[in-house]
Design brief:
This protein is α/β, with parallel strands linked by helices. 51% of the residues lie in helices and 12% in strands. The N and C termini lie far apart (58 Å).
């Protein structure tokens, strides 16, 4: 088939619906884009970034690849991040993975799928790095879920270590990096507790997330605000924060322990 008429019909209906709700929408959209968020997510067709967070076109700058990986040699991803941070002046970078990710599953089983095996080697590195934590989960499905979560946490750390983000923090540009995971079974997001707002927070935020996942039940995490899960979720988060603070304190140089801290890098 040389054309896809159904998709063109869908497009016309979509444009008509938006214009009926907001007659000036496309005119204002054509004038500029000013998103506050950049989304680094998976290419999976079941994870539509704007729809998940209820944002309109022009409100979310998006980069997607298989298994939401951030690699310091990937000029595609880095170009999107640099344009978002330096030109569009976004305030939030969101790394979002999802349960049931085919790329993560292939990396877990070390499946051979062709050229993509080279890309998924990055996720296999995450598995090797956190082998003990992954092994605590029950059966392969639970361990794959945990690997999906840990992959996001590691990619957040990679984002924070880019010169793009560190330069933004150095010039005191407000920028927060988040790590979330989405469950295709219920349509809800989970916060992985690795939010970072400065160079100084990178280690503690990463440690907090790992402690949180280590304390979590060996199943998919509850969504924020889920009935019956709030108290246990909050307790696990508090415990993770305490462990992360203790670890940071223990690792700090003696002369720096009594020094005042700042929320921004200098």
């Amino acid at each position: 088939m040389r054309s896809l008429p159904t998709l063109f019909d869908n497009n016309r209906q979509w444009a008509r619906r938006l214009s009926e709700r907001d007659p000036g929408f496309f005119q204002s959209l054509a004038a500029q884009q000013s998103p506050k968020y950049v989304w680094i997510g998976c290419s999976d067709s079941r994870v539509p970034a704007n729809d998940i967070v209820g944002l309109k076109p022009g409100e979310l700058f998006v980069h997607r690849n298989v298994a939401n990986v951030v690699v310091h040699t990937d000029l595609n991803c880095l170009s999107v991040l640099q344009y978002a941070v330096d030109v569009l002046q976004v305030e939030h970078v969101i790394v979002c993975g999802h349960y049931g990710c085919g790329g993560v599953r292939a990396a877990y089983f070390r499946s051979s799928l062709g050229l993509i095996d080279n890309w998924l080697r990055h996720v296999q590195d995450v598995r090797d790095r956190h082998e003990a934590l992954i092994a605590r989960a029950e059966a392969d499905d639970g361990r794959i879920d945990r690997l999906c979560e840990l992959n996001v946490v590691d990619q957040v750390r990679h984002v924070c270590h880019t010169t793009i983000v560190q330069d933004a923090w150095r010039r005191r540009q407000p920028l927060t990096v988040h790590g979330w995971i989405y469950d295709v079974r219920d349509g809800l997001l989970r916060d992985l507790r690795c939010t970072t707002t400065s160079v100084e927070e990178i280690g503690a935020a990463n440690a907090q997330a790992l402690d949180y996942l280590g304390a979590a039940r060996p199943t998919r995490l509850p969504a924020l605000g889920a009935a019956g899960d709030g108290e246990a979720d909050a307790a696990a988060a508090d415990d993770a924060r305490a462990k992360a603070d203790a670890r940071l304190e223990a690792d700090a140089p003696v002369e720096a322990k009594d020094a005042p801290t700042s929320g921004r890098s200098r």
